[in-house]
Amino acid sequence: MSTTQLDVVSAEEELFSGTVKEIFAPGSMGDLGITPGHAQLITTLKAGELRYITEEGNMASLFVSGGMMEVQPTVVTVLADTAIRAADLDEKSAEAAKARAEAALEGKDPEDLDYEALQAELEAAKAQIQMIHKIGNTLR
Amino acid sequence: MGLKEIRTQIGSIQSTRKITKAMEMVAASKMRRAAERMNASRPYATKMRQVVSHMASGHLEYKHPYTLEREEVKRVGYIIISTDRGLCGGLNTNLFKKAKQGIADWKEQGVEVDIAVYGGKALNAFKRYGVVAEAVGLGDRPELTDMIGPIKVMLDAYAEGKIDRLFMVENEFVNSMTQTPRATQLVPLVADDLEALDYHWDYLYEPDSKEVIDALMQRYIESLIYQGVVENVACEMSSRMVAMKSATDNAGDMIDKLQLVYNKARQAAITQEISEIVSGAAAVE
């Protein structure tokens, strides 16, 4: 049986590299099953479980918190996100970065600057926890 | 100088040398790990570049704004990546010189500059230029999560047309002895960075080409910044290692010199004492 090369990389490290028979990926439009010889495809992934059947026929899985998948007939590359990403989370970190800069320009001491930034961080953390719960539920 | 003072001074230099020696060794081991992380992030960036190159050369109906050059440049963005801590030789100074040079060139042409910084040193250095976003305290193991803020601020500004070009200034890790400051254009994408491709098929896009390309472009820029930050950590560590090594060597030289002065002074004191005793004895006889 033919096989596909699967590479799973994130910005921070390489997570998996090897030959596999079949891949099941959590595509943003629905789960995808990829077998060798699949047409060229690029899709975004949502957070979930990336499963694959190794050459020996074992099922293995990785958790991806979203990202992109590039499929070519003999090579599949998953560009995994390292963090949980959602538009509003990105927005919050952007706002926090701005707020910190403004506070720094006003010459406030970094120790006591940041009631607001802390609040934003707290909210981001809360949102992340909610996200994790949501993912946990969908996996179950 | 009295004997006692020289002795205390030697003691204090010795303890300084112990500290610089320890810092040198810590930096050396951290440098190795930073270089490993730098290499670990390469496959992602390489793969990203391949996919982005492919899409840039493809004949898509949707052209992403990052691939389009804007004719008129009214305002540019700079992302400056520095260290959080000092004691790393001229690393930051050289980097800031490079960044300030670039900024001055733009201002001469009547172009305004927006600045986003990573690292406390850059924040202090560019405060008076006005900083729109910052992320400091990323530590020795920077995480992408902590870097997203400033990137998003700058990319949003680009999307809204507030800035027309985006640059990144960081240190390039040539080897453990050499680090050179480097300024690269992030947006619009520079064609040289993209690989020339000679095949003509196109991907299927899911959900649709626009959404996929938008997500991909954002991650591509993020991966470049991440690499910049990680590379800068490697530079910081190697630069600190070299600076601390020379500090250790200098402390050694200073101790040698002081030791010589101390010995001479001690000998002089003994000689004087002997001559006093001898002349005292001669007076009694």
* Count of DSSP-assigned helices of chain B: 6
Binned, the helix content of chain A reads: 25-40%
Count of beta strands of chain A:
6
CATH H-level name of the largest domain in chain A... which superfamily? F0F1 ATP synthase delta/epsilon subunit, N-terminal
Percent of residues of chain B in helical segments? Answer: 55-70%
User: Might you state the CATH topology name of the largest domain in chain A?
Assistant: ATP Synthase, domain 1
Strands side by side in the biggest sheet of chain A:
1-2-4-5-6
Number of domains of chain A: 2
Q: For the largest sheet of chain B, list the strands in their spatial order.
A: 3-2-1-4-5
CA radius of gyration of chain B: 28 Å
Low-confidence regions of chain B: none
Fraction of residues in β-strands of chain A: 35-45%
Tell me the greatest interface. Answer: A-B, 37 and 44 residues
Query: What's the helix-strand series of chain A?
Result: EEEEEEHH
What multimeric state do the chains show?
A: heterodimer
Q: Find the count of extended strands of chain B (DSSP E, 2+ residues).
A: 6
Please outline the helices and strands:
The complex is a heterodimer of chains A (140) and B (285).
Chain A (H helix, E strand, L loop, with lengths): L3 E7 L3 E14 L2 E5 L6 E14 L4 E13 L3 E6 L6 H19 L9 H25 L1
Parallel strand pairs in A: 1-6
Antiparallel strand pairs in A: 1-2, 2-3, 2-4, 4-5, 5-6
Helix pairs in contact in A: 1-2
Chain B lengths: L2 H38 L1 H16 L17 E7 L9 H18 L3 E7 L1 H7 L4 E5 L8 H16 L5 E9 L5 E9 L16 E3 L2 H76 L1
Parallel strand pairs in B: 1-2, 1-4, 2-3
Antiparallel strand pairs in B: 4-5
Task: Report on this structure.
The complex is a heterodimer of chains A (140) and B (285). Chain A is of the alpha+beta class and 140 residues long. Chain A is built from 2 helices and 6 strands; from the N terminus they run E-E-E-E-E-E-H-H. The mean pLDDT of chain A is 81. By secondary structure, chain B is of the alpha/beta class. Helix content of chain B is 60%, strand content 14%. Chain B has helices at residues 3-40, 42-57, 91-108, 120-126, 144-159, 209-284, and strands at 75-81, 112-118, 131-135, 165-173, 179-187, 204-206. In chain B, strands 3-2-1-4-5 form a 5-stranded mixed β-sheet, sandwiched between helices. The longest helix of chain B has 76 residues, at 209-284. The model of chain B has no long low-confidence stretch (mean pLDDT 89). The interface between A and B is large, with 37 and 44 residues.
